[in-house]
Amino acid sequence: MEAWLTKAAESHAAQYEQAGYAAAVDAVREDGDWRDNLRTGMAAWVTAGALRAVTAGTEALSFGGHDAAGASGLTRKVWRTGGRNPRASHKALDGQDVALGDVFGNGLRWPGDGRGDAEETAGCNCSLNYTREGG
């Protein structure tokens, strides 16, 4: 698990750094006072970074559960929708049962899956349950 966490942290750091760079470049290119643009862009970057941090935590928690389930001999995973205002795509998945190595209907391996688009992963409050085949 440590190797996966290291790789995920490097990926998240690179994405965060790129977003900050893009916000700074955009601020200088926009009309008006570049300092005001930069302040606005950086504030948006910080907000996006906070959301990305929560999503990274969800991903790490989901990966850890997935890894432990496999090590425990569990073979199935079930999507459980969470939160007060879940995405329609996640609500539609509630209760979907797939093999441990498969992806769910939204293409994700688990909530917060770093392979997914932000539209599917950012701020996700879903979780997984694990079972054995036929269990």
Entry keywords:
elongated, mainly alpha, three-stranded antiparallel beta sheet, 135 residues, 4 helices
How much of the polypeptide forms β-strand, as a percent range?
A: 5-15%
What's the total number of strands? 3
Helix content: 55-70%
> Main beta sheet, described?
3 strands, antiparallel
Please work out how many helical segments DSSP would assign.
Answer: 4
How are strands sequenced across the largest beta sheet? 2-1-3
**Tell me, what's the shape?**
elongated
Low-confidence stretches: none
Structural domain count: 1
What is the N-to-C succession of helices and strands? HHEHEHE
Residue-averaged pLDDT = 83
Q: End-to-end distance, in Å?
A: 26 Å
Radius of gyration: 18 Å
| Helix-and-strand structural type | mainly alpha
Helix-strand blueprint:
Layout: H1 2-29, H2 34-71, E1 76-80, H3 88-93, E2 97-99, H4 118-121, E3 127-131
Antiparallel strand pairs: 1-2, 1-3
Helix pairs in contact: 1-2
Would you write up a description of this structure?
- It contains four helices and three strands, in the order H-H-E-H-E-H-E.
- With 135 residues, it is mainly alpha-helical.
- The chain has one domain (2-131).
- Strands 2-1-3 form a three-stranded antiparallel sheet.
- Helix 1 runs antiparallel to helix 2.
- The radius of gyration is 18 Å and the shape is elongated.
- The mean pLDDT is 83.
Put the structure in a nutshell.
This protein is mainly alpha-helical.
